[in-house]
């Protein structure tokens, strides 16, 4: 442990001597102080908070991510290139201790910088909220919509797989599939069609969603619906409708008639008269527009049920913790690349790994839908060998990247969405212990076989 801490201390001092810490700290403070003054919000108090929390901390985390990769890629490779690593390797120090010391030191540097940036962001937000920028009513609105953290629940998904498979089988038998379309691609297309139909509400029709309330959610005195829909008429026409909300045994306990504009985010807050530990809720929307008009709720983000879950500060700390775990993983990727390659190659490989992590959603879509390379010249030849191999590659890559998808926790904080503590614990176990341990093992095995003391001719 003493040797590991000594190497970590050397990594910290090297970062300070290179002026990386000072330069990055000045840039981060400039972002925290200057960005809220230059970026315009949508004019609402909540929009200003989203600018301060989402944009400021988002840009700061992006800068820290780049420096985490860069400093990690230079940590060992540069010492090997400059023949300084011999001074460490000649002592009774295990190669794993070198990797872990570099990772620990650089992770500590970025943790301190992130904490300073988060503290400055909170101070900036606090001073602006207490100043003359907002009225008392606007402050109350900010507290209600942002500072009160809410647990976001999605409706239970509509199961259309069986119906989609039956429809694809029918189209195959009647030869109705387009040329070059594989059965898997056809199944995905039909599933999307059926989901769209299930969330389309015609004139006078209604749609019911079911929500499962987690057992850990306490009794609540209010709930809020966040919804957004599209309409068959263009131009942002106001649509008349009625919401029915309640437990399964009394689905219309709370009734609210509304008029909302299409293609905009709306909120509906209901006070619960008698708090009960319900574990199931149904939400029904009735299309009561006087003219023939059809509305459509997106199956992905058209409707969300939000329950009070806590205060702002602990939620912000958990979000910052998730960002710190991501930074520590990026440092581990950089240090591992630094043990495998020379300085320029290590920097390039670390950057490529970061790009792959950032595009994991796109990789997932390729794994599900295929690459679109099957078939040629409009012939239904089925997937070729190259397409099948490429799709297998994307599926494997998606399997590896799926546990690393942490979303955008700072965006959740900026919109008052609750960050689950279990999510923080899971990210720590998966990203640091599992993936970090695998990177450390790979780096140690290769580093033990790497020649670090070539004689100079």
Helix content: 55-70%
Counting helices, strands and paired strands, the structural category is alpha+beta
CA-CA gap between termini = 37 Å
Series of H and E elements: HHHHHHHEHHEEEEEEEEEEHHHHHH
The value of Rg in angstroms is 27 Å
The number of helical segments is 15
**Low-confidence spans:** 372-382
What is the assembly state of the chains in this entry?
single chain
Largest sheet report: 4 strands, antiparallel
> Which geometry do the CA atoms define?
globular
Strand arrangement in the largest pleated sheet: 1-11-4-8
The average pLDDT value, as a whole number, equals 80
Number of domains: 2
Task: Tally the beta strands.
Answer: 11
- Strand composition percent: 5-15%
Walk me through this protein's architecture.
There is one protein chain. The protein has 457 residues and is an alpha+beta fold. The protein has 2 domains: 2-148 and 326-359 and 405-449, no CATH class; 161-310, Jelly Rolls (Sandwich), CATH 2.60.120. It is built from 15 helices and 11 strands. The chain has helices at residues 2-17, 20-38, 45-75, 77-81, 86-89, 95-130, 136-147, 161-173, 183-198, 312-340, 343-358, 360-369, 385-401, 409-414, 421-449; strands spanning 149-153, 200-201, 206-212, 222-227, 229-231, 238-246, 254-261, 266-271, 280-287, 295-297, 303-310. The strands form 3 sheets. It has a 4-stranded antiparallel beta sheet. Strand 6 (238-246) and strand 7 (254-261) form a beta hairpin. Helix 2 packs parallel to helix 6 (95-130), helix 3 runs antiparallel to helix 6 and helix 3 (45-75) runs antiparallel to helix 11 (343-358). It is globular and about 80 Å long. The two termini are 37 Å apart. Mean pLDDT is 80; it is low at 372-382.
């Amino acid at each position: 442990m003493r040797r590991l801490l000594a190497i970590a201390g050397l990594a910290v001092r090297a970062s300070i001597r290179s002026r990386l810490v000072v330069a990055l700290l000045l840039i981060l403070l400039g972002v925290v102080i200057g960005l809220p003054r230059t970026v315009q919000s949508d004019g609402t108090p909540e929009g200003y908070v989203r600018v301060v929390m989402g944009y400021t901390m988002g840009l700061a985390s992006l800068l820290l991510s780049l420096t985490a990769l860069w400093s990690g890629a230079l940590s060992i490779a540069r010492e090997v290139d400059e023949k300084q690593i011999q001074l460490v390797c000649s002592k009774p120090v295990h190669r794993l201790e070198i990797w872990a010391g570099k990772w620990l030191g650089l992770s500590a540097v970025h943790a301190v910088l992130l904490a300073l940036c988060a503290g400055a962001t909170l101070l900036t937000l606090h001073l602006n909220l207490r100043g003359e920028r907002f009225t008392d009513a606007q402050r109350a609105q900010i507290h209600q919509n942002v500072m009160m953290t809410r647990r976001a629940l999605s409706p239970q998904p509509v199961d259309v797989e069986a119906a989609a498979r039956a429809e694809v089988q029918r189209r195959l038998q009647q030869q109705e599939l387009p040329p070059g379309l594989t059965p898997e691609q056809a199944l995905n297309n039909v599933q999307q069609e059926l989901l769209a139909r299930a969330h389309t509400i015609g004139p006078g029709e209604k749609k019911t969603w079911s929500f499962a309330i987690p057992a850990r959610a306490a009794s609540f005195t209010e709930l809020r619906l966040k919804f957004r829909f599209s309409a068959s008429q263009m131009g942002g026409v106001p649509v008349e409708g009625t919401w029915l909300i309640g437990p399964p045994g009394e689905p219309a306990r709370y009734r609210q008639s509304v008029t909302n504009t299409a293609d905009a985010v709306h909120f509906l807050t209901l006070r619960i008269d008698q708090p009960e530990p319900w574990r199931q809720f149904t939400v029904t929307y009735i299309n009561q527009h006087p003219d023939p008009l059809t509305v459509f709720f997106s199956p992905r983000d058209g409707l969300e049920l939000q329950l009070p879950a806590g205060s702002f500060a602990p939620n912000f700390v958990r979000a910052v913790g998730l960002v710190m775990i991501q930074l520590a993983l990026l440092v581990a990727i950089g240090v591992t690349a630094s043990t495998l390659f020379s300085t320029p190659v290590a920097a390039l490989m670390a950057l490529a790994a970061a790009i792959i992590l950032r595009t994991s959603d796109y990789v997932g879509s390729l794994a599900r839908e295929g690459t679109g390379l099957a078939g040629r010249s409009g012939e239904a030849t089925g997937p070729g060998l190259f397409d099948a191999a490429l799709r297998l590659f994307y599926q494997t890559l998606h399997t590896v990247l799926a546990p690393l998808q942490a979303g955008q926790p700072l965006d959740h904080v900026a919109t008052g969405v609750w960050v689950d503590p279990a999510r923080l614990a899971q990210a720590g176990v998966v990203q640091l212990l599992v993936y970090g341990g695998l990177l450390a093992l790979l780096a140690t095995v290769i580093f033990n076989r790497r020649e670090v003391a070539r004689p100079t001719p």
